[in-house]
Fold this protein.
Amino acid sequence: MTSLIPPIRLGVNVDHVATIRNARGGDLPDPVRAAQLACAAGADGITAHLREDRRHIRDSDMRRLREQLTVPLNFEMAATDEMVAIALEHRPHAACLVPERREERTTEGGLDVLGGGIDLAHKVQKLAHAGIRVSLFVASDAAQIARAADIGAAVIELHTGAWCEFVAAGETAKAAAELARLLDAAGQGSALGLEIHAGHGLDYATAEIMAAVEPVRELNIGHFLIGESIFAGLEGTIRHMRTAMARGRARLGAPQAA
């Protein structure tokens, strides 16, 4: 008897719709409208990162997303007292804690769960006690993943950025080695009872490969989808991504580096 293939979800990050809006000021394009279109096209959830410097998503965007979405909202946030308070106010479905530095262009590297100590553990527990599903954005590092499980995270999101960069540069050996680390990390996290998500830098080809990794339950993708939508429209781009993910999921087995 063939076992059922576990489903995989697509979370769409709408941060860069807000980036375009903020480049000129005003209210357009509206990231909430983009989120609604994404859901209509097949997104299973919406991710938005409220950064300390508010460079893209605004506080009002988070409020409107929470009020208007009918799918889960994943609140990406730094592990600060300010962001914990905002998350507790809005009560999103999930909160993904990420490292954040003012000078970076986007999230670089995984969260230092070990270095976060008892303070990070208390923040995770506070969010979890409020009914918010806590995810930690981590690198493929065994010690960091073990600590994520120890402090009560429900989910880890594996940072796929380095792998995607190696794939894009045609560095086959490095891409294969990084993919092997991701596969090991996914297996370790799953064995520890963590739900496994993945994201950062994924495009159609790399998302298809990650969709074939059995422990992975969700891919979170933003920049590529928003950029590609300039040429193909947001709904068409998301449908194309869903098709790529479905192809990957249908051949669960031994994924190969692109």
Observations:
- The CA atoms of residues 149 and 192 lie 7 Å apart.
